[in-house]
Amino acid sequence: MNPLDADPAALAPPPSNSVQAELEFACDANGATYVHRQRVGYPFHVGRSLRMPEDPPGMPTIYLQSCSGGIFEGDDLRLRIAAGEGTAAHVATAASTVVHSMECQAASQQVELHARAASFVEYLPDPVILFPRAKLTSGMRVCVHPGATAIFGDAALLHDPMGGDAPFDWLQSETVIEDATGKLLARDCFRIEGSELARGLIGITGRWKAHGSLFVVTCAKPPAELVAAMRMALLTAGVYAGAALLPNQSGAWSRILATDAAALKAALFSTWAAIRQILTGTTPMPRRK
Fold first, then answer.
1. Across the strands, what pairs with 173?
2. Tens-of-pLDDT digits for all 289 residues of the chain?
């Protein structure tokens, strides 16, 4: 993994009218959260709101689906999620997203996440699957207002559908976390070259072929308590992982390297479940997809 070396403007948040999918959540008269506004265009599809056992009261689960069969060369995908004051919502994808092979142009996927005052919002997509010669720029910009909690993450796997070991080209990622005034709280960026990953160099990538991150931005619990819970949850086979405080005492985060998709999925779920238990007093049920 090398430091990201790119123009920050390339990952700037898009204006609202340029996104293909936009979701806004609000509270009804009884305090339950509902989709107050949605504007969805190709290639996204939004499923109906679901209520899951062991979720916080009034929290809907929304699954985003792709109608296109994955991410293709030249795609510029943009998603905006806004959780209104006092809302609680869980947004995920219905399945992993394939990033197809590319000849020249890269693809881009950008997400804006706004957590208004006292809201509790989760954005936990399934991993992207990088095919040989895939080139993807992935960006997430998160704005967290006072009293809000935002839990979000990303993950990546690699796969050669021809049964070989042909590598993807590169994955470039940036996550920016800000407060309501626009003050930068934390920034994480990396670039993974497929050719370097394929070498399996000891001390650099080794045998680890799957990657994921989980962030928790909140003032509801001391950050050190969140880090301790993450570290306990990550004591599992098949992963090399760590957890640490986010800058500015804004929360906690973990980064996970795994031997395969199953190990990565298990580690991400156990980490998320541990955080949910601390923040809400209940453990989420596994999602069947």
1. 138, 190
2. 443 444 433 334 444 457 899 999 999 999 999 999 999 999 999 999 999 999 999 999 999 999 999 999 999 999 999 999 999 999 999 999 999 999 999 999 999 999 999 999 999 999 999 999 999 999 999 999 999 999 999 999 999 999 988 999 999 999 999 999 999 999 999 999 999 888 888 877 888 989 999 999 999 999 999 999 999 999 988 899 999 999 999 999 999 999 999 999 999 999 999 999 999 999 999 887 7
Pairing of strands 88-93, 61-66: parallel
Q: Are strands 210-217 and 251-258 parallel, antiparallel or unpaired?
A: antiparallel
Phi then psi for 44, rounded to 5 degrees?
A: -90, 150
Omega before residue 223 within 30° of 0, cis: no
> CA 182, 183, 189 angle in degrees (round to 5)?
100
pTM confidence score? 0.91
DSSP reduced 3-state for 266: helix
Interstrand relation of 120-123 and 149-158 (parallel, antiparallel or unpaired)? parallel
Distance of CA 218 to the CA centre of its chain: 16
* Longest Cα separation, the chain: 57
First to last CA, the chain: 31
Contact 233, 269 (CB under 8 A): no
DSSP letters, 201-256, are: -TTTTTT--EEEEEEEE-SSS-HHHHHHHHHHHT--TTEEEEEEEPGGG-EEEEEE
Angle, helices 223-233 vs 261-280, to 10°: value is 140
pLDDT digits (tens, 9 = 90+) for 111-130: 999 999 999 999 999 999 99
Dihedral (CA of 99, 210, 96, 61) sign: negative
